[in-house]
Amino acid sequence: MAQIQEYQSLVLDALEVVDFKLIREKGDINNDALTFHPAMAHQIFGESETIFGYEDLHVRVLYTAGPLHIYLGIEYSNRVNEISGGEIKADDVVSTIAQSLPDGCYFINLDEFLKTLDKADKFQPFGEKIGEYTQVSDDGTERLFEIYQCDYKSSSFLKFFGRLQTFILWFVDAASYIDTDDPQWCYFLCYEKYKNSDGQWQYATAGYTTVYEYYAYPENKRPRISQMLILPPFQKLGLATQMVESIYKFYQAQKNVIDITVEDPSEDFQRLRNFVDARFCKELKSFARAEIVKGFNKEMVREARETLKLNPHQVRKVYELLRLFYTNINEEKEYKAYRLEVKKRLNAVHYKQMKDLQKMERLKMDTEMIRARLPTVKQRMDQLQEEYTVVEQDYQKTIAKLRAL
Ligand SMILES: CC(C)(COP(=O)(O)OP(=O)(O)OC[C@H]1O[C@@H](n2cnc3c(N)ncnc32)[C@H](O)[C@@H]1OP(=O)(O)O)[C@@H](O)C(=O)NCCC(=O)NCCS
């Protein structure tokens, strides 16, 4: 009987063998330059992110660039089923991926899939246009992008969105599909508007953001940005930054919006948000240099909330960022005052813990076990310095971008 260990070389890294492509025209099928790979695959292939049983495997996951019709197929030179004389079976890759697709809607016949391209030039963005952006590359080439807001629940939109959100399992950590039956979801979509080979304008889907509009008493709402994904071929073109700005403007114009929050932001997203917020706040009166150097105050929270709909927690971050922007770090006194200010915030939870402990001790409660788990003063100082360094490095990256404007 064949031993599975004999076939170790047939254990493949899904992140390498799964090839995605966004297809604008038939010729794109053979254009390797368009291929991109998943960032993660554990939601599809399990924790090990492996596929078993093939030699020279290519898993092709193709999407038409606008409407996002999906083709799934595999190519390989040899399979463990044949090598082992039928004793061992290779993973059924197509049906494993298909389980994550909405309504089992996908093509396994490439010609049928390509036929959908014949109608792709009719594909129009869903929703209302709320922004546009021209991206200019180093060689002067211009690309045009448009941002749309969509809250209508037509079945054609929901089917399209069902296909679009299949990407998150591969590209967003800990992501899950949203419940599109819930009417409080609002959708923002980004498309590239490009001229096809016939010289006609056509749309390609570039990314999306979902926002959950929480109700707030009595007739208000607090939108929370939930998922944002810019498809890999469109990343680092400034699209997420533009989308965040458009979403802000959309909600800033609404009187009944209290503030905008973000659900569990990734590091990249938080940096991007800090940049957008700092750029907006820099123009506010309460964030003028002369005010910032005096320290954090309630007027900053009020003004940023009223005009920009920023929540207080984020306003504090932007204050720290802009204060560093204005701080001369070569002036030791100025720089030290800045560090102390940030460390005070970073230490707030620990400080509260220590106060509570002292209170318990005054009440003659036994705190020995709790104290044993706490860091010593020296350890805490070192931790704080480490935390501070991470925060400052992050702020400095954003400051460099602000200075480059
Ligand atoms: C995080 C994410 C949304 C960012 O999207 P994006 O469109 O690439 O973002 P931007 O282009 O606006 O900015 C990204 C970086 O590119 C830089 N950039 C912007 N325009 C650029 C250009 N024309 N050329 C080169 N770089 C550019 C930005 O300065 C920024 O740099 P930084 O990361 O050092 O701060 C995207 O990477 C993504 O979808 N990731 C996977 C999912 C995810 O993490 N989502 C967020 C949490 S739900």
UniProtKB/TrEMBL annotation:
Localization per record: Nucleus
Span list, region Interaction with histone H4 N-terminus: 47-49, 212-214
Residues annotated as catalytic: 263 (proton donor/acceptor)
Domain Histone acetyltransferase type B catalytic subunit C-terminal as annotated: residue spans: 273-324
Domain of life (superkingdom): Eukaryota
Keyword presence, tRNA processing: no
Catalysed reactions, semicolon-separated: L-lysyl-[protein] + acetyl-CoA = N(6)-acetyl-L-lysyl-[protein] + CoA + H(+)
Stretches assigned to the Histone acetyl transferase HAT1 N-terminal domain: 11-173
Entry EC no(s): 2.3.1.48
Gene Ontology MF terms in the entry: histone acetyltransferase activity; histone binding
One Pfam family it belongs to: Hat1_N
Cellular compartments per GO CC: chromosome, telomeric region; nucleus
UniProt cross-references to Gene3D superfamilies, sorted A to Z: 1.10.10.390, 3.40.630.30, Histone acetyl transferase 1 (HAT1), N-terminal domain
Matching SUPFAM superfamilies: Acyl-CoA N-acyltransferases (Nat)
Record-marked site positions (Interaction with histone H4 N-terminus): 185
Entry binding sites for acetyl-CoA: 235-241
Biological process annotations from GO: subtelomeric heterochromatin formation
Coiled coil (residue ranges): 374-401
Keywords for this protein: Acyltransferase, Coiled coil, Nucleus, Transferase
Family membership: Belongs to the HAT1 family.
Descriptive protein name: Histone acetyltransferase type B catalytic subunit
Species the sequence originates in: Drosophila kikkawai (Fruit fly)
Organism taxonomic ancestry: Eukaryota, Metazoa, Ecdysozoa, Arthropoda, Hexapoda
